[in-house]
Predict the structure.
Amino acid sequence: MPKFKITSFLILIIFFLNNCGFTPEYAGFKGIDFSLSLNEVEGDRELNNAIASQLNRYSNEKNYSLKIINVNIKSKFSKDILSKDSTGKATKYNLKANVEFVLKTDDGSRKINLYEEFKIDNIEDNVEEMKYIKIMPGIIVAIIKRNFAEIITKKLILNINKNK
């Protein structure tokens, strides 16, 4: 009986995923006729590394028919305190990523500035906070930086595709 339930459940999931409008993540990136070459990188190291790993997906030096776009990255990441409690302890933070891309081709160069921000609450429960600190300090900020990098990279690729 449990096998029947699992099989039925899997069939239902497949049926709903096929009929609910689900599309693969990179379905909108068809027809990319360029190759990105990363040149200069400065700013927040962790954010830049995440962006560079995302941009490497669009690097194809083997195909000479593609238009080569040289990319320079200048990033800035900040963590600002939005509010404090009565004891002076920070309760809310605003995380911001500002990335400037300079794209150079044979036709010329252009700048693209992309900006993302995220507001986050400080963990109130000291026991829960100690769990996070003991497991991996700064993991939340690192995850947010990777998410920022993914969003910013997608915006850049869409911008390049739109303004060929």
